[in-house]
Prior knowledge:
Oligomer: single chain
Strand content: 5-15%
Radius of gyration: 33 Å
Amino acid sequence: MMYFRWIILFLLSSASFALAQDTAGVPLTPTEIRTELFGLHSPDPSQPRVFPQDTGAVLAEKKSVGLAAIYSLLLPGMGETYTGAFTSSGKYFLLAEGILWVTFAAFEISGNSLQTDARTYSAVNAGVLVAGKNDQFFVDIGNYLTVDDYNQQKLRDRQPQKLYDPAAGYGWQWVSDEARQTFKDQRIASDQMYNDQKFVVAAILLNHIVSAINAGRSAVAYNSVLSQALKDVEFGARVMGSAGNSHGVMLTIQKGF
């Protein structure tokens, strides 16, 4: 069971990076470039050529690499949405984020449940007064059959500061060694759940960082495609009418495909 949890955590933390490696930097098709730049579809050869000034479309702007990275640091997938790469890679980072938080919550719920069950078991089978006790106390009662056994060992170890006072509510006596071992196993299982949460948190942080890197790369790829698509845009201007009888200036912009 422990190995299974490690495999799941590894897959969750690395899947988004693999997906990003496969999808980042994919070049846009000519149709996608036209749509992104001018909101136009592939021209119909039988129809007159339509240019951006005829449609009122606004040229696309370059994306900020830093802003894309910051967005994904805040929420994986947000930076990819900003750069237009959500469907290709951002959705996987967002999905991984959701799965990791659900896993974190599951470990929290399971750990609390196991801890409550173990401490209730100690109250029934060892006479433990659970309220007000710290975690170290429950570690100790799982290692010794009675409080006297524990105190005698600490005296032999010359650690009198660690003695428990049964009269102050820190006494216990297990009904059997098997009951003590059962409690110990439950406590360890509970602690394992809490330890697993730390690895989930690490995986969440990794998902944010990898998504930020991927969003930055997506912004660079977007800007590269945009620069390539705009390099042969031609601008023109001429006075309409004749000398001394001008009636306006005509500006033109043409983009070859």
